[in-house]
Structures are given as C-alpha cells and as structure tokens.
Amino acid sequence: MHAIRVVLADDEPVIRAGVRAILAADPGIDVVAEAADGRELVDAVLAHRPDVAVVDIRMPGLDGLAAAAEVRRTAPGTAVLIMTSFGEDAYVARALGDGAAGFLLKTGDPREFPLGVRAAAEGGAYLSPPVAARVIRGLAGDRLSRSAAAREQVAGLTNREREVLALVGEGLSNAGVAARLHLAEGSVKTYVSTIMSKLGVPNRVRAAIIAHEAGLAGGR
C-alpha cells in the first residue's frame, strides 16, 4: 500500500515545520509539497495530486477557505483537512459547506494530525474533539431544538443506518465502519450515501455533526 501523499499549507514556516515533523514521524505518510499561501496550495495540489491537503484556515492572498473550495472543485480526489485555532469558529462553520473532510486544532494533541490524515485519505471525516464541540455549539443556536431536530432526522433511518451513522460520527472511514460492523466496504459506501441522502446533508462532516447532536456519537 502506498504512503498517503500530503500537501501542507500554512503561511507560518514554524507551523509548517512542526506539522511536517509530526506527519513525517508516521512511515505511512509522505509530505510531498508545502505552500505558504492559498494560490501556492492550489498549484501544488494540481502538480502533485495528493491524497490529502492539510490547510491553515487563514492565509494571505487566497485564504485557506477559498483555496480549500478551489481544491475541492479542481481536484476532487484530494481530501481537505482544515487547521484551525480557537476563536475561528465562524470560519470553521463556513468550511463545512465547502466539503472539508475534517478539522484539526493547531494547539491540540499532535497525535490527531496523522489520525486526521488517515481518516481523510480513507474517505472518512475527522473532527478534533475540541473543534467538534465548538462546531456543534456554533451551529446549534437553541441546543435543545437542534438536538430534537437531529433526533427527528435520524428517526427515519433503519437500525443499521443508525449504527453506520454513529461510527461516521466517531470519524471512522468506510473501511473502519466495515471492520467494526463486519460488512463489505462497498456496502458501507452505499449505506453512507443513503444516509446522507436521507439526512439531506452534502458531506460526511455534516452527517457526523448530526450523529453528535442526535446523541449517537460523542457521548452526548
């Protein structure tokens, strides 16, 4: 199995060096290029066609959000992981709509970076736990009404679909869900597509949030 190819984008050289060192410690991950702004990121992705782009949410010129959207449009085979800091919740909420595969907290546990990269590369979604909690609060408004709405949404799912959604909410990839539930990976892919259609969500991250809000994942 080939190493997961990553392009890393952050305008701060120290941050890039630190994240690169964390990822390089994993023999299954290969950082093939770095970028200091959004335009460099898009060019690097088109040149290298990596499995995952790890992108700072704020960069000069073409910012991280715009660059991530451009990557999703021009290189749909590349999953995008957004790096964020505390106080950037509004940016995180916007990135959800652009199909980001997950969010990593810059000041969080370094072990989350390879975990997030692996989940994204395998078609999963990864939410750093502190980011997940903030995103859910930010989207919630009235938490009780959001929870009730989420429970109503998942009520239309079959028991198996709810099991799959719960594991998506934990950040598992299709392969991870298949292993946990003893299903074929192709069957899981079909389940996930059906679940997103029934829930009316555009990506796995939105589905994962509904899983949290409905109490299927995250220990709510």
Automatic annotation (TrEMBL):
Modified residues (4-aspartylphosphate): 56
One GO term of the biological process aspect: regulation of DNA-templated transcription
Phosphoprotein among keywords: yes
Keywords, ordered alphabetically: DNA-binding, Phosphoprotein, Transcription, Transcription regulation
PROSITE patterns in the cross-refs: HTH_LUXR_2 (PS50043), RESPONSE_REGULATORY (PS50110)
Response regulatory domain mapped to chain residues: 5-121
Molecular functions per Gene Ontology: DNA binding
HTH luxR-type domain boundaries: 150-215
Protein name: Two component transcriptional regulator, LuxR family
Organism annotation: Microbispora rosea
Lineage of producing organism: Bacteria, Bacillati, Actinomycetota, Actinomycetes, Streptosporangiales
